[in-house]
Amino acid sequence: MEFQIGERWIGKNHKPFIIAEMSGNHNQSLERALQIVEAAAASGVDALKLQTYTADTMTLDIHEGDFFIEDANNLWKGSSLYNLYQEAYTPWEWHETIFKRCAELGILVFSTPFDETAVDFLESLNVPAYKIASFENTDIQLIRKVAATGKPMIISTGMASIAELDETVREARQHGCKELVLLKCTSTYPATPENTNILTLPHMEQLFGCPVGMSDHTMGVGVSVASIALGATVIEKHFTLRRADGGVDATFSMEPEEMKSLVVETERAWQALGQIRYGATEREQASLKHRRSLYISQDLKAGDVLTRNNVKAIRPGLGLPTKYLDQLLGRTVTGDIAKGTPLTWEVI
Question: Which domains does the chain carry?
Answer without folding.
Answer: 12-53+89-273 (3.20.20.70), 282-347 (3.90.1210.10)
